[in-house]
Recover the amino acids of this structure.
Protein backbone atom coordinates (compact mmCIF):
# COMPACT_ATOMS: atom_id res chain seq x y z
CA UNK A 1 0.00 0.00 0.00
CA UNK A 2 1.23 3.52 -0.61
CA UNK A 3 0.25 6.69 1.24
CA UNK A 4 -2.10 7.77 -1.55
CA UNK A 5 -4.01 4.51 -1.00
CA UNK A 6 -4.28 5.40 2.69
CA UNK A 7 -5.60 8.86 1.85
CA UNK A 8 -8.29 7.28 -0.31
CA UNK A 9 -9.26 4.62 2.25
CA UNK A 10 -9.46 7.15 5.10
CA UNK A 11 -11.13 9.94 3.10
CA UNK A 12 -8.23 11.98 4.41
CA UNK A 13 -6.85 15.40 3.59
CA UNK A 14 -3.11 15.80 2.92
CA UNK A 15 -1.64 18.55 5.09
CA UNK A 16 1.97 18.28 3.92
CA UNK A 17 4.15 16.00 1.85
CA UNK A 18 1.91 15.87 -1.22
CA UNK A 19 4.94 15.01 -3.36
CA UNK A 20 5.61 11.87 -1.29
CA UNK A 21 2.24 10.13 -1.63
CA UNK A 22 3.71 7.27 -3.66
CA UNK A 23 5.84 6.19 -0.66
CA UNK A 24 5.17 2.56 0.20
CA UNK A 25 4.07 1.67 3.73
CA UNK A 26 3.88 -1.82 5.19
CA UNK A 27 2.88 -1.43 8.85
CA UNK A 28 1.06 0.96 11.14
CA UNK A 29 0.91 1.80 14.81
CA UNK A 30 -1.85 3.61 16.67
CA UNK A 31 -1.13 5.29 19.97
CA UNK A 32 -1.32 8.55 21.87
CA UNK A 33 1.49 7.38 24.16
CA UNK A 34 4.74 8.16 22.40
CA UNK A 35 6.61 6.00 24.92
CA UNK A 36 4.67 2.99 23.59
CA UNK A 37 5.51 3.96 20.03
CA UNK A 38 9.19 4.20 20.91
CA UNK A 39 9.06 0.84 22.69
CA UNK A 40 7.30 -1.15 19.98
CA UNK A 41 7.89 0.48 16.61
CA UNK A 42 11.09 -0.07 14.68
CA UNK A 43 11.00 2.27 11.68
CA UNK A 44 9.44 3.11 8.35
CA UNK A 45 5.85 2.79 9.47
CA UNK A 46 2.75 4.94 9.83
CA UNK A 47 1.63 6.47 13.13
CA UNK A 48 -2.06 7.05 13.75
CA UNK A 49 -2.67 9.39 16.68
CA UNK A 50 -4.84 12.12 18.10
CA UNK A 51 -1.90 14.09 19.46
CA UNK A 52 -0.79 17.18 17.57
CA UNK A 53 2.23 18.26 19.60
CA UNK A 54 6.00 18.35 19.15
CA UNK A 55 6.44 14.97 20.89
CA UNK A 56 4.83 13.29 17.89
CA UNK A 57 7.37 14.89 15.55
CA UNK A 58 10.31 13.95 17.74
CA UNK A 59 9.10 10.37 17.86
CA UNK A 60 8.58 10.30 14.09
CA UNK A 61 12.08 11.65 13.55
CA UNK A 62 13.70 9.13 15.91
CA UNK A 63 11.97 6.19 14.22
CA UNK A 64 12.18 7.35 10.60
CA UNK A 65 8.38 7.21 10.26
CA UNK A 66 6.95 7.92 6.82
CA UNK A 67 3.50 9.26 7.60
CA UNK A 68 1.52 10.76 10.46
CA UNK A 69 -2.24 10.29 10.45
CA UNK A 70 -4.16 12.61 12.74
CA UNK A 71 -7.49 11.11 13.73
CA UNK A 72 -10.77 12.83 14.53
CA UNK A 73 -10.09 15.61 12.02
CA UNK A 74 -7.33 17.12 14.11
CA UNK A 75 -5.02 19.57 12.37
CA UNK A 76 -1.70 20.56 13.92
CA UNK A 77 -0.36 24.10 13.84
CA UNK A 78 1.56 25.51 10.91
CA UNK A 79 4.87 25.29 12.81
CA UNK A 80 4.44 21.55 13.30
CA UNK A 81 3.50 21.07 9.65
CA UNK A 82 6.55 23.03 8.49
CA UNK A 83 8.84 20.92 10.67
CA UNK A 84 7.15 17.70 9.48
CA UNK A 85 7.71 18.73 5.89
CA UNK A 86 11.40 19.43 6.63
CA UNK A 87 11.64 15.93 8.13
CA UNK A 88 10.22 14.41 4.95
CA UNK A 89 6.97 13.29 6.54
CA UNK A 90 3.59 13.05 4.91
CA UNK A 91 0.94 14.37 7.28
CA UNK A 92 -2.73 13.63 6.75
CA UNK A 93 -5.90 14.13 8.75
CA UNK A 94 -8.96 11.93 8.70
CA UNK A 95 -12.41 12.54 10.16
CA UNK A 96 -12.40 8.93 11.39
CA UNK A 97 -11.63 8.01 14.98
CA UNK A 98 -8.31 6.27 15.55
CA UNK A 99 -10.13 2.96 16.04
CA UNK A 100 -12.06 3.30 12.81
CA UNK A 101 -8.97 4.45 10.89
CA UNK A 102 -7.10 1.35 12.07
CA UNK A 103 -9.97 -0.90 11.04
CA UNK A 104 -10.25 0.67 7.60
CA UNK A 105 -6.52 0.37 6.97
CA UNK A 106 -6.44 -3.20 8.25
CA UNK A 107 -9.35 -4.11 5.99
CA UNK A 108 -7.42 -2.56 3.08
CA UNK A 109 -4.38 -4.75 3.81
CA UNK A 110 -2.15 -2.65 6.09
CA UNK A 111 -1.02 -4.58 9.15
CA UNK A 112 0.14 -3.60 12.60
CA UNK A 113 3.72 -3.54 13.76
CA UNK A 114 4.62 -7.04 14.95
CA UNK A 115 5.39 -7.19 18.64
CA UNK A 116 7.60 -9.91 20.05
CA UNK A 117 6.81 -10.74 23.65
CA UNK A 118 9.32 -12.44 25.89
CA UNK A 119 8.28 -16.07 26.37
CA UNK A 120 7.57 -15.46 30.04
CA UNK A 121 5.09 -12.69 29.18
CA UNK A 122 3.34 -14.31 26.23
CA UNK A 123 -0.41 -14.44 26.62
CA UNK A 124 -2.88 -16.29 24.46
Amino acid sequence: MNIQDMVNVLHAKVLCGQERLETKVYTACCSDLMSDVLAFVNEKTVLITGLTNAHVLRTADMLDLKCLVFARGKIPGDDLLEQADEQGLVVITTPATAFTACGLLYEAGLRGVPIEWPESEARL
In short: The beta strands are 13-16, 27-30, 46-49, 67-70, 90-93, 111-112. The two ends are 30 Å apart (CA to CA). The longest helix spans residues 54-63. The chain has a mean pLDDT of 91.
